[in-house]
Amino acid sequence: MIQTTDYDCVIIGTGPAGLGTAFHLLKARPGMKILLLDKEPASTGGLRNDCKMNFTYPIGFPLEYWKKEEADEYFKEVKEYLKPEIMPKMNIRTYMNRAEKLGVQLIKIEQAHLGTDKGRILIKKLMEEIKEKGAEVSLKEKALRVNAGGKILETDKREILYHTLIIAPGRSGFRFLQSVMDSLTIQYMDNMIDIGIRIETPLKNYPIVEDYYDPKFIFPENNVRTFCTNSKRAYVVKEKYTTKYGKPYYSVNGHAFSENKKENGLVNFAMLKTVRLTKPLASGQDFAEILGLQAVLLGGGNPIIQRVGDFRLGKRSSSESFTDNDLYNFEPSLKSCSPGDISLSMPARILRAIWRSMKMLDTIIPGILHPSTIMYYPEIKLYANKPSFIDDNFRVKDTIYMIGDGAGTSRGITAAWASGIRAAKGILGSG
User: Fold this and answer.
1) pTM for the complete prediction?
2) CA-based nearest residue to 108, from 213, 205, 200
3) 218 with 183, same domain?
4) Within 238-378, where are the H helices?
5) pLDDT score of 219 more than 60
6) What does the alpha-carbon distance between residue 173 and residue 178 come to, in Å, rounded to a whole number?
């Protein structure tokens, strides 16, 4: 390998956390020598996937790391670069009153939504801007390992000298992040994970989205929440993951296009239960892989889908459940799934909590439990790495920082960008 000249700062990951670091550093110190690299052929992260942004604390901000005053201050800088158009919320008092009667919280969030297509346009603009400011960007270059003593990052193409290293690989870089922590003997915990389903239904069954694009419902009794609502031009996708033993499995997710695209009249959102594995302490990543592999097994190599009508009758969905034009009156947006029985794959305790929450939601917004509603399984969120930080700027070693969703310092675009700002402040000595 050819060893390059050294950089003031090398950033692994070109999502919002990495970009937040780079923009803040170059604003404070123009001319600073910065390299951003990513294993993918294009910038990755939440900006590319639907590009939904929340600007209200504590959404996206893990409470153990963030205070409201700090988050509110960072929002100002995040908005400078993302330039969000905040979406209005109307006519939601009725929903809030119904939720309160059930002990459910409907949180009002300042939101912006670009859609997957406009998100890609924003990414292109940000990448061009960061290059104009002097940063170097290297895509399709995979980080392999870190030599902290020599301040060397080894990739699949070269060895890179750094003065400061930012590791922000996102949720998909969960395994890489753990490998670095293991090699550098950084203590961490990954005992938390979100497990759930993605619901898809016609817009008429979830009309709240006409007034509140991504309504945030929290069901404290069940430790369940709604997550990532998409509507009008919405579709479900499957994301491929690989276990540490090389076996593939899938998690579903939701996207939506901007108003530039034709409407399909559907809504999708996740119902997620947070699981904390404590007695005995166990790896959330390993647990996720077991559940993912089990779903793939029962789904014949694909995620599982089931109509609510079949589930309520205690029977599996079959191909007929998706060809009947009476009650089962719309097609799934993700067709590469297997009709089946989610209860055979999802742990009963998790399923019960989610089903109780769905019944509460149907009381608040009658229609969600229409027989035609589709449940996709599994949806798994891997952002439970909890490194042992040695300061408030997310430093884990003398000149190494870990930030973003993959390191558990954020849950979403705006908080990830904010964590990048905070790490940059640490590098600059102003944190």
Assistant:
1) 0.90
2) 213
3) no
4) 284-298, 308-312, 348-364
5) yes
6) 9
Q: Do residues 202 and 152 share a domain?
A: no
- 3-state SS of the chain: helix, strand, coil percent to 5? 30, 30, 40
With respect to residue 95, please indicate whether it lies within any of the assigned structural domains: no
Amino acid found at 185 = T
Of the listed ranges 85-89, 195-199, 300-304, 337-341, the one predicted with least confidence: 85-89
Band of pLDDT at residue 431, cut at 50, 70 and 90: low
pLDDT in tens, 141-153: 999 999 999 999 9
R_g of the chain computed on alpha carbons? 22
Domain region containing 212: 192-381
Q: Which helix (H) or strand (E) holds 239?
A: strand 234-242
**Hey, how many other C-beta atoms are within 10 angstroms of the C-beta on 311?**
21
Contacts of 250 (CB under 8 A, 6+ apart): 238, 239, 240, 241, 292, 295, 296, 302, 303, 378
pLDDT at 1: 55
- Domain-embedded: residue 67: yes
**Both structure tokens of 178:** 């753990």
